[in-house]
Amino acid sequence: MLAAGRGERAGSPHEIPKQYRLLGQKPIIYHTVHCFLQHPAITTIILVIHPEDHQICKQALAELKEHLIIVEGGNTRQISTLHGLQALKKFNPQYVHIHDGARPFIKKKLLDNIHNTITPQEGVLPVLPISDTLKRVNHQHVLETIPRTHLYSAQTPQCFPFEHILAAHKQAKKVCKEDFTDDCAIAEWFGIPMLTVLGDPHNIKITWHKDFDTAHLYLQKKMQMFPDIRTGNGYDVHSFEEGDCLILCGIKIPFHKKLNGHSDADVALHALTDALLATQGAGDIGTHFPPSDPQWKNVSSETFLRHALDIVTQAGGRIANVDITLIAEEPKIGPYRQTMMENLMRILTISPDRISIKATTNEKLGFIGRGEGIAALATASILYPGEIPK
Questions:
Q1: Can you give the residue ranges of the 2-C-methyl-D-erythritol 2,4-cyclodiphosphate synthase domain (predicted)?
Q2: b (16+ CB within 10 A) / e for 306-326
C-alpha cells in the first residue's frame, strides 16, 4: 500500500499529507487499511510511507498497527513500490495487491472479483469504461476527438503474481526506466499478461481538493445506510439531608430537603452522564470525577454532562434520543418537567422530541418509598459514523 506521497495537489503543501487528513473521524489511510484488513484473503500489509511520516502514521493507525509492516518509500512512486515488494518477499506470497493509500473506499466485492480472476501467470486490473468524450488539445486548441471505444480508466488495487511483478520492477530499475504511471504499465512492458475486471465508481482516488468533498458525501451516505447506533444506560441514587432545595436536570427545585452528594448531587444528570459515557466504553462518572477529589466539591453536574458530551462528539457521535426516569415519592416533578427539558435542550443542543423526562413513585416500597432519597435511570441512543462491526 503506497502512502509516501506529499499530496500537494489536494491542498496547500503546508498541510499534512492528504492520506493523513480526516475523512469523517478517521484519517484517509485508516479507512484504506481497514478495508483490506476486513478481507479474509489479505494476510499481510506492507505500508510504504515517507521517511518524515513515522509519527503521524503511528498516530493515524494506532488501532491497526499490529497488522502492518511499515517501510520507507523513495523519491518516486515506482521506487516506493519496489521497496514495498522487497519487504514483502520474506513472506513468500503467491500474489500481491498494489494499491494507492488515497483510495479509501475498497469494497469486498471488488477484491473478491480480483481474487477469482487472478492466475499464476496473469495479473488483474480493475477498470471503468470512459463515459466522457475525449479530446486531444494543444494550447487551448482542439486537435482531434479520440474514439473512446476500448478505452478504460485504470484503478487500484492491481493484483499480480508476486515473483513476476517483483522481477519486472527490478528490471525497470536496472535499465533506469522510470516513466511508468502505474504497475500495470510495468507489467505490460515486462510481458506479464493482464486481465481486467469491472472496477467500482466509488473507488475514487483522492487527488484534488474537490475529491475530499466527494469522499465526504459518499461517507455520509454510507453512514446513513449502515448506522452504528449505540445505547448506553445510567443509574444513580442520592439520599436526602436537611436543606431548602434540590437540583434535578440542572433546575433548582424548592423543597424542605436537599440531596446529599459531593457535587450538587443532581441524580438525573449523573445518570445521563453515565449513559453517554457508556456508548464509548469510557467508564463512569466516578472514573472521570472521583468523589475523593476536592476540586469537584459542590460543582454543577452540568460540568460532568458536558464532559461526557465532548467525548461523544469527538468520536463523531450525534444524540438520537435521551430518556430519564426519576423515582421518588416527593417532590412532585410535573411542575418542573418543561423547564428541565428546556435545560437539557440547551446543554445537548437537541430538539424536545429527542428528550424524555418521566417520574414515578416506588409505591411506598424501600428507601425511596420511605422518602429517604431519589433514584434516576437514564438511557441514551447515539448515532456514530461507520458500519456496525462484524
A1: 229-382
A2: ebbbebbeeebbebeebbbbb
pLDDT digits (tens, 9 = 90+) for 111-142: 999 999 999 999 999 999 999 999 999 999 99
pLDDT tens digits for range 138-171? 999 999 999 998 999 999 999 999 999 999 999 9
CATH code, domain carrying 288: 3.30.1330.50
3-state secondary structure of 124: strand
> Which of 225, 248, 275 is the last residue in one of the domains?
225
In a domain, 132, yes or no: yes
Cell numbers standing for residue 25 = 473521524
Please indicate if the annotation marks 262 as binding a ligand.
Answer: yes
212 and 342 part of one domain? no
In the predicted structure, residue 12 carries a pLDDT above the cut 50:
no
41 in a structural domain: yes
Residue-wise burial string across 96-116, b where 16 or more C-beta atoms lie within 10 A, e elsewhere? bbbbbbbbbbbeeebbebbbe
CATH of the domain at 110: 3.90.550.10
SS3 309: helix
Lowest mean pLDDT among 25-34, 275-284, 368-377: 25-34
Answer whether 50's CB lies under 8 Å from 5's CB: yes
User: Is residue 285 scored above 80 in pLDDT?
Assistant: yes
| Domain that includes residue 278, residue range | 228-384
CA–CA dist 207, 351 (Å, integer): 39
Same-domain status, 253 and 344:
yes
Same domain, yes or no: 193 and 46: yes
313 a known binding residue?
no
Is 260 a known ligand-binding residue?
Answer: no
At which residue does the C-alpha cell 423526562 appear? Answer: 357
Per the annotation, does 8 bind a ligand? no
Any binding-site annotation on 370?
A: yes
197/247 same-domain check: no
pLDDT value, residue 316: 79
Q: Is 362 annotated as a binding residue?
A: yes
Average pLDDT, the chain: 91
Do both 84 and 154 map to the same domain?
A: yes
Residues 44 and 1: beta-carbon distance below 8 Å: no
